[in-house]
Design brief:
This protein is an all-alpha fold and 103 residues long. It is built from 4 helices and no strands. Helix 2 packs across helix 3. The longest helix has 22 residues. The chain is globular, with a radius of gyration of 15 Å.
């Protein structure tokens, strides 16, 4: 997505690599959306997967993807953001909870 030089030295191909990355992310994000339900991604308990869901959602926003397409995922993140340890980590990193919701 951000470093096409990892895949080729031909700078003319960087945009195609980026587009391919976005297509791959769209498929992966659709899978996260399907997995997002009333509970947590990996079952009945909060796991690292739920925390990583925050990161990937924020990255999607950062690269300009329409994260409004993932309402179940956004609802999961709302639950994640309610956790005291997550609140502390976000604050410590200088981030804002709004960065983890659709724009």
């Amino acid at each position: 997505m951000w470093r096409g030089e990892r895949f080729t030295n031909d700078e003319k191909l960087f945009e195609a690599i980026k587009e391919g990355g976005i297509r791959a992310l769209e498929k992966q994000f659709a899978e996260i959306e399907q997995l997002s339900g009333e509970g947590w991604l990996a079952g009945d308990s909060f796991t690292a997967a739920d925390g990583y869901a925050l990161v990937f959602f924020r990255w999607g926003r950062r690269i300009g993807m329409d994260m409004g397409r993932y309402p179940r995922w956004a609802a999961l993140l709302k639950r994640v953001l309610e956790r005291p340890a997550v609140k502390r980590a976000i604050e410590r990193e200088g981030l804002k909870p709004e960065e983890f919701q659709p724009a």
